[in-house]
Specification:
The chain is of the alpha/beta class. The protein is 25% helix and 26% strand. The strands form three sheets. Strands 3, 4, 5, 6, 7, 14 and 15 form a seven-stranded mixed β-sheet that branches. A six-stranded parallel β-sheet has the order 10-9-8-11-12-13. A two-stranded antiparallel ribbon has the order 1-2. The longest helix is centred in the middle third of the chain and has 12 residues, at 160-171.
Length: 326
């Protein structure tokens, strides 16, 4: 099968397409023929090893796992002898965190993993763009216990995690202020934002507004900067930078404003099913910026590294990866 591999850390050019052995499912696994996946900032970060500490997980001198990619949407090609939940031909979507491997034509996953039937009527490319950002946003927002009438500010509201967090906050009943640039105003409004702030024109920390939750979906702001914009008992929810772990432990004991940094994130089948139900109820949609064929994976990585993407970047593995509804 074809797969995108890398044998060393570095720029996007270290990636190449190679024929590798097709995996064989064990008794508890399903073999999925992948039609679409995503290229995320996790993929670009692991490929470049920009944070040297990541090498203690991915391999000190060279990558332990040559194939990147976590999100996927495709069809069940084969099932292990003990699998009863899925059958050959089922259209599925999900995420394979920590093990990766979705930038390939096939992957084996346990039937109990974060994998579920695709939402009815959804094309493969849209299904592939659901899980990573949405489940990371769920992990971040659940500990904040958002409820009806609370105010949340989503910083970086037009990115993968941001577009997901905005929609989930609306589902939980909160009033949402979205922070992004002007070109994405209409998008975030269409996703349910009540107010929009252009970060290039206005500093939200100086407008006098207070929020119950400030959600940094891109890792570009700090608790110290946002503290005065939080209500008493409010939460600053971080998605990046390990110093926020220390702040979370400190503010849990001292002060009336708190940092939440829920790591490591959990990826469960229950959350994939929850997102499927939200989509089928018309309360969530995937946001896709660009689609690249597998052969253009280097360009996809380069674009993600610009940090200018809106929503998700999709990698189409087969011709069925775009626009084929279930």
């Amino acid at each position: 099968m074809k797969a995108v591999v890398h044998d060393r850390y570095g720029p996007p050019d270290v990636l190449r397409i190679e024929d590798v052995p097709r995996p064989v499912p064990n008794v508890n696994e399903v073999l999925v023929k992948i039609h679409a996946a995503t290229v995320s900032r996790t993929d670009t970060g692991l490929r470049s090893a920009e944070l040297f500490a990541s090498r203690f997980i991915t391999g000190l001198l060279r990558p332990k796992r040559r194939i990147l990619g976590s999100d996927l949407a495709g069809e069940v090609e084969a099932v292990g002898a003990a699998v009863t939940e899925f059958k050959v031909g089922d259209r599925v979507f999900g995420i394979n965190p920590w093990k990766f491997g979705t930038h390939a034509e096939f992957i084996c996953m346990p039937a109990s993993a974060a994998l579920a039937y695709m939402p009815a009527g959804m094309p493969f490319d849209e299904a592939a763009a659901i899980c990573d950002g949405a489940i990371l946003a769920l992990n971040a927002l659940r500990p904040a216990h958002l409820r009806h009438g609370q105010r949340i500010l989503v910083y970086g509201a037009s990115g993968s995690i941001g577009t997901a967090g905005l929609q989930l906050a609306r589902y939980f009943g909160a009033d949402v202020t979205a922070v992004c640039n002007t070109r994405n105003f209409e998008l975030v409004k269409s996703l349910g934002a009540d107010e929009v702030v252009d970060y290039t024109q206005e500093d939200f920390t100086k407008n006098g507004h207070l929020y119950d939750v400030i959600f940094d979906a891109v890792g570009n702001i700090s608790f110290s900067r946002c503290r005065d914009s939080l209500q008493r008992g409010g939460f600053f929810v971080a998605t990046d930078h390990l110093h926020n772990l220390a702040l979370a432990l400190w503010t849990a004991r001292i002060g009336d404003k708190h940092v939440l940094f829920p790591i490591p994130p959990k990826f469960t089948k229950q959350d994939v099913v929850f997102l499927k139900e939200l989509i089928e109820a018309g309360k969530y949609r995937a946001v896709i910026d660009r689609r690249y064929p597998l052969e253009d994976v280097v360009e996809a990585h380069r674009y993600v590294e610009t940090k200018q993407r809106t929503g998700n970047v999709v990698l189409t593995i087969t011709d069925n990866g775009v626009g084929t509804a279930g």
